[in-house]
Design brief:
It contains 6 helices and 6 strands, in the order αβαβααββββαα. By secondary structure, it is α/β, with parallel strands linked by helices. Helix 2 runs parallel beside helix 5. The protein is globular, with a radius of gyration of 18 Å.
């Protein structure tokens, strides 16, 4: 399993749930960092060169799209009144500012410190994450569908193990204050991004910004 670039900077979270929620209440702004994506053990029939190319397109789509997807999920919580005190930085702004530091993707985060990133982005907190997919494909039963915008979606007949995780970093403390993982096994036909989005939707429920968690203290 891969480790989120920032996750490696701190292995333990010695804070209690009450302390984490208290810190989260102090955050006024948060940015979602690029999501690390890794596909392992992709088993493709020898004749399926086109399928492999489309799989590569989907990996790139995951890397570029999951950052925005998670930010959108946070925004949905905010619109529901569950985290009104936090401003979520637009992913396009985050991407632009990170580029100024030489960060073009999640891999580039490995050489950066959380405090440096937060200061440059002008936020109180950061969210980092990773997705690990172990996939076995049956190319004979996979289907390529074209979307109205001209892009292709590869609906894969596959067995998949998906592991996703997110961490919340406090800029003032310069440390990880929360982390959560979610695993998902799937067998059938579904595009890869749908599997990872399912994981993300489950992770969002437990983020410290969710006011429902505060009421359960």
């Amino acid at each position: 399993m891969i480790i989120s670039p920032l996750h490696a900077q701190q292995k333990k979270t010695p804070l209690s749930k009450k302390e984490v929620l208290a810190l989260a209440q102090q955050h006024q702004s948060v940015a979602v960092l690029p999501v690390m994506v890794e596909l392992e053990d992709i088993k493709l029939p020898s004749r399926s060169e086109q399928t492999a190319e489309l799989m590569g397109w989907n990996v790139e789509a995951l890397e570029n799209g999951l950052q925005s997807f998670y930010a959108d999920k946070l925004y949905e919580l905010k619109m529901k009144g569950k985290m009104n005190w936090v401003n979520i930085q637009d992913p396009s702004t985050t991407t632009k500012l990170l580029a100024e530091l030489g960060v073009e993707n999640a891999e580039d985060l490995r050489s950066k410190k959380m405090g440096e990133l937060a200061e440059h982005l002008g936020v109180d907190a950061l969210i980092s994450g990773y997705v690990f997919l172990k996939v076995e494909l049956d190319a004979d039963r996979s289907v390529v569908l074209m979307r109205p915008d001209g892009k292709a979606d590869l609906y894969l007949n596959m067995s998949s193990i998906s592991e996703s995780g997110f961490q919340l970093w406090d800029a003032t403390l310069e440390k990880r204050i929360w982390s959560k993982e979610h695993n998902y096994y799937f067998k059938g036909i579904k595009p890869p991004y749908r599997i990872t989005e399912y994981n993300f939707s489950n992770l969002i429920k437990s983020i410290p910004y969710n006011s429902k968690l505060k009421k359960k203290q």
